[in-house]
Specification:
By secondary structure, the chain is mostly beta strands. It has three domains: 61 residues, SH3 type barrels (Roll); 59 residues, OB fold (Dihydrolipoamide Acetyltransferase, E2P) (Beta Barrel), CATH 2.40.50; 53 residues, Beta Barrel (OB fold (Dihydrolipoamide Acetyltransferase, E2P)). It has no helices and 16 strands. It starts with a strand and ends with a strand.
């Protein structure tokens, strides 16, 4: 099994701990005045969603998680699950809503990366930016203030006060922030 050294680990790296895949959310290299350097990691479980902290000596290594990405297209909701279609094999896969971060930013026909661990879906990575229509907001006004707006998917985000209902906006899915009006 492939391993990754602590000097190569970065946020977003996928490692395996006790047979479960984790993604590194925070990485901190510490060089104290006394003793050897070490690395503090904050990891989020791809299967369980649990967040754990680990401290490793500098130079240690962890096994790389066997997580593959497959491009899929969102088709429709099915109760508490969402149905996605593989772009190559046209095979459909159901994924529970609670496994998807920012699920309310997924619109019809949106292409996503489904993460598979041992051929089981363990998560969904949305594209960095999505374009959605504003369906409800206060009337536009001048000024640099932010106001709440409801998007076509039902998501609630903050947009500048000049954005009107019916306009399309680009949203960054990583932090749910307004980027630009289209």
């Amino acid at each position: 099994m492939a391993t990754i050294d602590t000097s190569r680990i970065r946020p977003g790296s996928r490692v395996e701990i006790d047979g479960e895949p984790f993604v590194v959310t925070r990485y901190q290299h510490v060089k104290p005045g006394k003793g050897g350097a070490f690395v503090r990691l904050k990891l989020k479980g791809l299967v369980s969603g649990a967040v754990i902290d680990r401290t490793l000596k500098s130079g240690e290594s962890l096994p790389v998680a066997d997580v593959r990405q497959r491009k899929m297209q969102y088709l429709y909701p099915d109760g508490d699950k969402l149905v996605f279609m593989d772009q190559e094999s046209y095979e459909q896969t159901e994924i529970a809503r609670e496994m998807i971060e920012n699920v309310d930013l997924i619109s019809a026909n949106c292409e996503v990366d489904v993460l598979l661990h041992r051929d089981k879906p363990v998560g969904v990575e949305l594209p960095n930016f999505v374009v959605l229509e504003v369906t409800a907001s206060d009337p536009p006004e001048k000024g640099g203030r932010l106001k709440p707006a409801t998007l076509e998917t039902g998501a609630l985000v903050q947009v500048p006060s000049f954005v009107a209902r019916g306009e399309k906006v680009r949203i960054d899915t990583r932090d749910r922030k307004y980027v630009e009006r289209l």
